[in-house]
Write a structure and sequence with these properties.
heterodimer; A: alpha/beta; Rossmann fold; 7-stranded mixed β-sheet; 5-stranded mixed β-sheet; 14 strands; B: alpha+beta; OB fold (Dihydrolipoamide Acetyltransferase, E2P); Dihydrolipoamide Transferase; 6-stranded mixed β-sheet; 4-stranded antiparallel β-sheet; 26% strand; elongated
Chain lengths: 327, 422
């Protein structure tokens, strides 16, 4: 079984799915002759041609709007947003339109489109190349939002997205693109949307997370094990719909919950996870539901020192684990 | 202040009650806990006491009316500032106590509504400030586990922040047998770790009761003849056999013969089939210091009286000295239990799984009994004994059980002072 990085898993999945299904097209800024700024579509324009791999103007509203029009008319477009920070002009097309196609047409039309959104920081990207934008999409009924953190999950969830008949936002953390490597089967497989996974079993604390923070959390959990604290790490994988069952089962077992995310905590995915735990696990809780995230400031700072201060790190997560364990 | 009197909840399945009689009228002054109104529910009839001292105001529900539990049934005026203070003390008769705005929580705790209070609640002895000790901050799971397992949290050592009792502390206390620091006060509940034999008996009993549908039957036996026979033959028997002559071996012999005539009583329900046992091996329940043991008299229908007596005496001695080996307690097909030795006159024994029945012989007591003969009825002093049978209703119906009991009865009652028992 080959070992791939996340970006390689994304590329190979898109390639094999485009070979399998000619209705899949890819459109976005520099996805064609440049092969994408992260090289996700390196070599695609040579293999599939300019009709299926389309370089677009710097206009996210039109990328998503055209993709939506194509999807409603029978194609399966992949819209690539170059950086999540640029997605805001497309919000009306995605939240206002794509999410409502099935409902608005009483199921006559659907929008089988995949929007790939490289997001997240810790890459010295500064104010315009580091944002976590998931919460707006995760709040929107009619959209599915997945956030695979490993190469295996990237292939499985992207495959599901490309075969889905409804719009799926695929959040790819930029830092994981080349950081996270793992074995990926060559054969086809898919991972259902809405299924979290326990990435590490433990009995003392449930750590619920997603994206890059999964990797930092797994490192922190290993360090915590050295201190005699047994941490269970739950990878959400899907942010809408959130897999409440897996969260409830884990927290009911451990009695303590720590939610770690890179996005600012107020009114965020961690708020939702905390609500799920509060509503369902009250009588099993042995400590306050705890959240760890960056400070509530508008952007990810550009200064390396400040960026490090902003981002949760394995050390900061370990500290939060130790404090919750001691309560 | 104005106070609403509500009909208290008396049990989870009781949803309404009928107001039977108001014991006070509007304008009457009432003392706290004084009976205020009689109510009737389908479970209990009770007097609802006054929740506070004061003056009864408007009565909202007429006699004869049906009211939902928790409904406001009257109003009163109290002299005090509010319901706090003394109300926060747990009442020993909470079921009949009305606490303003209060419900009884799922774990029996009171949630007192202090929103009506206009003055700060007076300090009360048993309401120590929570900040005094971190161990008073119990998390939901700790509270739930303690309630479920009956653990007194004040006896559990907290290892959490500020001495907080954590979930782990409760689980540790639970594993170590109830509480981490058992107190020595004699008023405290004592937790005893069962001995292995106690555990085995417990498992055996649970298995029997949960697997076997028990049914019961009892019969009265006139043992006057048996008593007379024993009195007459006792000294000679004991001289020639070297063991005491008791009633039990004789009854055991009679029972073994009745089992031969009623083989279904000597059987076992095994995997949906009735297995009628070829041998009649009667287990005899013996109370030893360690617990109940049941040594077995094998082939009880074939042995003579002196043989049974010797075997029986031998087994009882071994049981009391804790010297029984496995072969002594295996292979029983029926059990006889002499509960009468303990003064009992009736019992509903649990069958010795996987047997089909167990018979108890109860106390022999002298009673006036009406004897009927052709010359008429007369009252005589007779020695009487009850025998109680528990049987597996999958195998045996009441008719067969009675047939067996009648057979034992006639077997015993046929014995007279002059019988030649072997």
């Amino acid at each position: 079984m080959p070992e791939l990085s996340v970006i390689e898993a994304v590329r190979e999945t898109m390639r094999s799915e485009m070979r399998r299904d000619s209705s899949i097209i890819l459109m976005g800024e520099d996805v064609g002759h440049r092969g994408g700024v992260f090289l996700a579509s390196d070599g695609f324009v040579e293999e599939f041609g300019e009709d299926r791999v389309i370089d677009t103007p710097l206009a996210e509203s039109s990328i998503c709007g055209v993709a939506l029009g194509a999807a409603v008319n029978g194609m399966r477009p992949i819209a690539e947003i170059q950086f999540a920070d640029f997605v805001w002009p497309a919000i009306n097309q995605l939240v206002g339109e794509a999410a409502r196609v099935r409902y608005g047409t009483n199921g006559v039309k659907t929008a089988p489109m995949t929007v790939r959104v490289p997001y997240g920081g810790g890459v010295r990207g500064g104010l315009y190349h580091s944002q976590s934008i998931e919460v707006l999409f995760a709040h929107t009924p009619g959209l599915s939002v997945v956030a695979p953190a490993t190469p295996y999950d990237a292939k499985g969830l992207l495959t599901t997205a490309l075969r889905s008949n409804d719009p799926v936002i695929v959040l790819e953390h930029k830092r994981t693109y080349r950081l996270a490597k793992g074995e990926v089967p060559e054969e086809e497989y898919s991972i259902p949307i809405g299924q979290a996974e326990v990435k590490r079993e433990g009995s003392d604390i449930s750590l619920v997370t997603y994206g890059l923070m999964l990797h930092y959390s797994l490192q922190a959990a290993e360090m915590a094990a050295g201190q005699g604290i047994d941490v269970e790490v739950v990878d959400l994988r899907t942010l809408r719909p959130i897999d409440a069952k897996t969260i409830i089962s884990s927290v009911s077992k451990t009695g303590k919950a720590l939610i770690v995310q890179e996005d600012t905590p107020a009114t965020s995915v961690s708020s939702e996870v905390a609500a799920i735990i509060g509503e369902n696990c009250f009588f099993d809780l042995d400590g306050p539901i705890t959240r760890l995230g960056p400070p509530e400031i508008p952007p990810m700072p550009f200064s390396p020192v400040q960026e490090a201060a902003f981002m949760p790190s394995p050390e900061k997560i370990l500290d939060a684990i130790a404090r919750l364990a001691a309560i | 202040m104005a106070y609403e009197i509500v009909l208290p909840h008396v049990g989870e399945s009781v949803t309404e009650a009928v107001i039977s009689k108001w014991l006070k009228s509007t304008g009457d002054s009432i003392e706290k806990y004084e009976p205020l109104v009689e109510v009737i529910t389908d479970k209990v009839n009770m007097d609802v006491p006054a929740p506070e001292s004061g003056v009864l105001g408007e009565i909202l529900v007429n006699e004869g009316d049906t009211v939902a539990m928790g409904a406001v049934i009257a109003r009163m005026e109290t002299g005090g500032a509010g319901p706090a203070g003394s109300d926060s003390k747990p009442s020993s008769s909470r079921i009949g106590t009305l606490v303003q705005g209060a419900n009884v929580g799922p774990t029996g705790g009171e949630f007192t509504d202090t929103s009506l209070s206009t003055a700060p609640a007076p300090a009360s002895e048993d309401a120590a400030p929570i900040s005094e000790s971190g161990s008073r901050n119990y998390s939901p799971v700790v509270t739930r586990l303690a309630a479920k397992h009956g653990i007194d949290l004040s006896t559990v050592t907290g290892t959490g922040l500020g001495g907080r009792v954590t979930k782990k502390d409760v689980l540790t206390a639970l594993e170590s047998g109830g509480s981490a620091q058992p107190t020595t006060s004699s008023e405290e509940d004592q937790v005893i770790e069962p001995t292995p034999i106690r555990k085995m008996i417990a498992e055996h009993m649970v298995r029997s009761v949960s697997e076997i549908p028990h049914a019961w039957s009892a019969i009265e036996v006139d043992v006057t003849g048996l008593v007379q026979w024993r009195d007459k033959n006792r000294s000679e028997f004991e001289a020639s056999n070297g063991v005491k002559l008791t009633y039990f071996p004789i009854m055991l012999q009679v029972v073994a013969n009745s089992l031969r005539q009623n083989p279904k009583l000597n059987s076992s329900w095994q995997e949906g089939k009735i297995v009628v046992k070829g041998q009649i091996n009667v287990g005899v329940a013996v109370a030893s210091a360690a617990g109940l043991v049941v040594p077995v008299v094998n082939n009880a229908d074939k042995a003579d009286l002196s043989g049974i007596s010797r075997t029986f005496t031998d087994l009882v001695t071994k049981a009391r000295d804790n010297k029984l080996d496995v072969s002594d307690v295996q292979g029983g097909t029926f059990t006889l239990n002499n509960t009468g030795a303990l003064g009992s006159v009736w019992g509903g024994a649990i069958i010795n799984h996987p047997q089909a029945a167990i018979l108890t012989t109860e106390s022999i007591v002298k009673r006036p009994v009406i004897i009927s003969d052709p010359t008429g009825d007369s009252i005589a002093v007779r020695s009487m004994m009850n025998m109680c049978l528990s049987f597996d209703h999958r195998i045996i119906d009441g008719a067969e059980a009675s047939e067996f009991l009648q057979s034992v009865k006639s077997g015993i009652e046929s014995i007279t002072a002059d019988s030649e028992l072997k």
